[in-house]
Specification:
One of its GO terms (molecular function) is oxidoreductase activity. By secondary structure, this protein is an alpha/beta fold. The chain has twelve helices and seven strands. Helices cover 51% and strands 11% of the residues.
Length: 337
């Protein structure tokens, strides 16, 4: 009883600031992506200042991406018949590029290892273009590349645009049991082959002040599990062609590096070590026709580096600044929690 009577007196004698209600704490909305990112970054970097800096960077990158993705009002339309050589043209991006270039009247030479598919594609391209030839060959074979150049000089009188589409995928986790032959095959096709092609076609492209278009991948910039070998082969080719551009752009050669994410083609199904954590089908990814439209526009405009879709430019920058963030989502995407 005495305790109850004394409580009001004790409360009345407390300092005024003690009686003030505390400010409510910030409570993240459950399930909110922003709250999840907030918590993750605070946990990773340990300060609100870093979180604010991350948000600022993201805002700047989003604005940049919106600007870069706007339609350009001026296009480089070629008055003459463009002479185009496409290596790796029998399927996927290479096949669609062949069809689109044929529709706009380009003079084409197509190369691939699969002659039966090349014959079918050549026949289809001839429906819209008067000059289409094919050459059966392998990008890793120097003699084949020289034969391709000879055919281009004979049939076309030179080369305006060389497009390198040939590539193979490795989609399994790197292990002690990973075969040496697999590593060599991936690098021979994705790295050594394009370098050989660039060397053999360099003189012809310098004469025409032409375009060298390289279909690479964002996997060469943004690391992901199960893509260690493939990503390394693309990272090497990215650095090679970015360096080569600096060496020769003053002489009129443009090198356009195309960096797509997953495209709706059968490319994933052709992985040499098909052990993918994602389904090997064409139900997700970038539409092939749209992707090739962007590639051709980029070549016409003589752009230097193109991300498809464009927001991967922001992701690549984010990876350089906050690699833990992109690594976290890569682990989540491929099931490596």
């Amino acid at each position: 009883m005495n305790v109850c009577l004394n409580l009001p007196i004790a409360a009345a004698t407390l300092p005024p600031e003690t009686l003030q209600a505390p400010e409510p704490a910030e409570v993240p909305v459950p399930g909110s992506a922003l709250s999840a990112l907030n918590s993750f970054v605070q946990m990773t970097y340990g300060s609100r200042e870093n979180l604010h800096m991350l948000y600022l960077i993201i805002c700047v990158l989003v604005i940049t991406c919106i600007y870069l993705s706007k339609e350009r009002s001026h296009w480089l339309h070629r008055e003459n018949k463009e002479r185009v050589v496409i290596i790796g043209s029998s399927s996927g991006i290479g096949k669609e590029l062949s069809l689109q270039y044929a529709k706009r009247g380009a003079k084409l030479i197509l190369m691939s290892r699969r002659e039966n598919l090349l014959k079918e594609l050549t026949k289809k391209c001839l429906e819209t273009s008067s000059s289409v030839n094919y050459f059966k060959g392998d990008i890793t074979n120097e003699a084949d590349l020289k034969g391709l150049l000879d055919l281009a000089n004979e049939k076309l009188g030179g080369v305006d645009t060389l497009i390198l589409c040939a590539g193979i995928l490795s989609s399994s986790q790197f292990k002690e049991e990973t075969e040496t032959s697999l590593i060599q095959t991936i690098f021979n096709t994705n790295t050594i082959g394009p370098i050989l092609a660039a060397r053999i076609f360099l003189k012809a492209l310098l004469v025409s002040k032409g375009n060298l278009v390289v279909i690479s991948s964002v996997a060469g910039l943004i690391p992901a599990p199960t893509r260690s070998i493939y990503g390394a082969s693309k990272a090497a080719i990215n650095l090679f062609f970015n360096s080569l551009r600096i060496e020769y752009e003053s002489r009129g050669l443009n090198i356009c590096l195309i960096l797509p994410a997953t495209v709706k083609t059968e490319f994933r199904n052709s992985a040499l070590d098909a052990e993918d954590n994602l389904e090997n089908n064409k139900t997700f990814g970038i539409d092939t026709v749209k992707c090739c439209n962007i590639i051709i526009r980029s070549s016409d405009l003589r752009l230097k580096q193109v991300f498809i879709p464009v927001h991967y430019f922001a992701i690549s920058l984010l990876e350089k600044i906050f690699p833990s963030v992109t690594n976290y989502f890569a682990k989540k995407k491929y099931g490596f929690h």
